[in-house]
Amino acid sequence: LKQKVIDFFTEHSLKAEAVPVVEKKLRAAARKTAVPHLLLALPVVLDDGRFRVLAVHENTKDSGDNNGGADSVNVTQVVRKAFAQWNVSLEMENYEAREEAFIERVDEILEHHLKRKVLIELPLDAPDG
Prior knowledge:
Elements: H1 2-11, H2 19-32, E1 38-45, E2 51-57, H3 75-85, H4 95-115
Antiparallel strand pairs: 1-2
Helix pairs in contact: 1-2, 3-4
């Protein structure tokens, strides 16, 4: 990170005395970002052949008990939002039935995934770049 800040300061002709201050601020900002916990990343091939990944994150807002897990995730909302972003056609044959089947399958996969035993958990604190 320090080298990136130095390169930026050199490229934009800024004073080198501020490098430590900027580096410290960037490191503090990198630690503060609240990234929702990724529960599931499911590869999806759409009807027109496009490949997408459905990311199911733990809900951190608007959840009643906020204890994480499948109870705090509205899979229907996640799937419908993804379909809207991916421009999945409502005119598709049997859209409602296919959507409902997909929602049920994602929910089953998520529940199975969350029931698995965690073998090891390692913290990782690194800024992008």
